[in-house]
């Protein structure tokens, strides 16, 4: 499993859309008022739905950065600029040869949410 962050999510999918298995869209309350970001999210969601890529919204981009970057100056003091993790694409280049159990659980969660008419499930990441 590989995590890749792209400010314009489409860049990775244009190169190899078959290996993208999950799209994480992270936004906090301030981001919900950002019209440009919401339009960007809408376009990414449409692309993901069209290409059978599961989507998961995450409520705390800062905490997501801490988890994905394993605390390596994920926006803390001394960091030049916090990373932009509004759109994170998860790839699984050898899907038929190797399955990550955590990724399988996330995909199962997304599919179960769709059965309950929640097309883009939200995970609320608490602060530390």
From TrEMBL:
Q: Where in the cell is it found?
A: Nucleus
Q: Which UniProt keywords apply?
A: Cell cycle, DNA damage, Growth arrest, Nucleus, Phosphoprotein
| InterPro entries in alphabetical order | GADD45, Ribosomal_eL30-like_sf, Ribosomal_eL8/eL30/eS12/Gad45
Output the superkingdom of the source species: Eukaryota
Q: Where does this chain mainly localize?
A: nucleus
User: What is one term from the GO cellular component aspect held by the record?
Assistant: cytoplasm
Indicate the segments forming the Ribosomal protein eL8/eL30/eS12/Gadd45 domain, all copies. Answer: 19-70
Under which name does UniProt file this protein?
A: Growth arrest and DNA damage-inducible protein GADD45 alpha
Q: Which source organism?
A: Heterocephalus glaber (Naked mole rat)
Give the encoding gene's name.
Answer: Gadd45a
């Amino acid at each position: 499993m590989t995590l890749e962050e792209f400010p314009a999510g489409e860049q990775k999918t244009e190169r190899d859309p078959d290996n993208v298995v999950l799209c994480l869209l992270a936004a906090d309350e301030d981001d919900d008022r950002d019209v440009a970001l919401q339009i960007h999210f809408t376009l990414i969601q449409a692309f993901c739905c069209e290409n059978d890529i599961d989507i998961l919204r995450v409520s705390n981009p800062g905490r997501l950065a801490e988890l994905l970057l394993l605390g390596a100056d994920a926006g803390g003091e001394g960091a030049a600029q916090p990373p932009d993790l509004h759109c994170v694409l998860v790839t699984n280049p050898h899907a038929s040869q190797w399955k990550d159990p955590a990724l399988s659980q996330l995909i199962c969660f997304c599919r179960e949410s769709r059965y309950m008419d929640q097309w883009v499930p939200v995970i609320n990441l608490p602060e530390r």
